[in-house]
Amino acid sequence: MSTDMQSLFFSRTDLDRARTESIVSDALTGCDDGELFLEYRQHEGLVFDDGVLRAANFDITQGFGIRAVSGETTGLAHSSEISEAALRRAADAVQQVRHGSGGVLAAPPPGTNRQLYSPDNPVEEIPFTDKVKLLSAIDSYARGLDSKVAQVYASLAGEWQVVEIIRGDGSTSRDIRPLVRLTVSITARHGERQESGSHSVGGRSSYSTFIGETDWRAVVDEAFRQAQVNLEAGPAPAGEMDVVLGPGWPGILLHEAVGHGLEGDFNRKQTSAFAGLMGQRVAAPGVTVVDDGTINDRRGSLTIDDEGTPSAYNVLIEDGILKGYMQDRLNARLMGMAPTGNGRRESHAHVPMPRMTNTYMLNGDRDPAEIIASVKNGLYAVSFGGGQVDITSGKFVFSCTEAYHIENGKIGRPVKGATLIGNGPDALTRIAMIGNDMKLDPGVGTCGKRGQGVPVGVGQPTIRLNAITVGGTG
Q1: Residue 19 pLDDT > 90, yes or no?
Q2: Residue 144 to residues 50, 134, 138, 182, 218, Cα–Cα distance (Å)
Q3: For residues 200 and 380, is the Cβ–Cβ distance under 8 A?
Q4: What is the DSSP string of 216-235?
Q5: Which domains does the chain have, with CATH numbers?
Q6: Is the pLDDT of residue 295 over 80?
Q7: Is the pTM of this model over 0.90?
Q8: CA distance readout (Å), 74 to 21, 71, 104, 334
């Protein structure tokens, strides 16, 4: 598939660019905002389970969504058929929202020539047989690590998405987005006990970034290490105690318990625990949280968002003070603020809304070993699995997939079944120490909101939170 974005949606269909622009312009006349979103996507997934290639999928999806915005009202019509006839039908449908608007189409977003990732298609990068050989090699290597290895699961997924956004004034934005992921899960058995460990890596890049032998062996080794830790884990303590969160993936708690509450729609509707607190202290001194969609090759990064706005480095909380929200065009306009490059949608069949990109906490000045040593009796949480958050109240419950008991300033035995229970805004005020070891997650996050999933990144340094409720099994 050619990466010539100038002609992808017009050379392969009966769409004519000039007529398409005219249809979009007519449909959005009298509206406040809107756009035509064209999408072409290739996706593949291979699963190697228990020594056998269990699944191999390849899909192509394409289509368009035309959106008209009038006041707070949004009309979206979409189709998997890219044709002038389908576009005209959809344009007629969205014109129904022309009421109560200012009648002046909002200015288009600024353009950008920045490119944060390669336009090359990872799906076509290496032959299918080589992908199968890779997964087979992973399976063989994992089984050879230890006699305790009982089952191995390995998967490889790649995606190549091309988007073009045409606005009512004829302005156009384009982007090509690769996305890959490698996952290995290992089940280990010792006696009658059986436990699993899993590790994934990924990003907006080619497969070659992750499938060199040194790279994939590191993924397998980490999955096996986690399985071994879980085999040795004892019951988790319970009660109120100091908790140390490790760097990287534990930033998922920040993403869920705090990040969603800083999205523009929840604050405009006054349903966020952070609504009305702009300029006020919402976190302990030293806490700075940013959402940054401009990091090269990261899973959550975007050259432009799904409304055509260039992504940005957005400071949300600075030294504990609330500084900003993440905005799409609709909520920014209604709140009298500027779009921040956070308008995202799952596909052409979905409306954009404020969503995170790569959300993380900046470094502090404390050594991680010093933070551990400061805790007499507590929990060291290295990785999280599932969780639940209430945006309005900020209350959260998160399950730890790897955690350790801290005893007299030292990391002790691994524990299983620990959950963290608290309130996001309150937890921000309980941060007592911030490490100097900030890192991002390995490139595996997917965020769900109102039925839509988009790739995201998280990160943080090691941090200590005072007096957090821990649900345990001991």
Answers
A1: yes
A2: 14, 15, 10, 20, 14
A3: no
A4: HHHHHHHHHHHHHHHHH-EE
A5: 8-232 (3.30.2290.10), 239-471 (no CATH)
A6: yes
A7: yes
A8: 20, 8, 16, 13
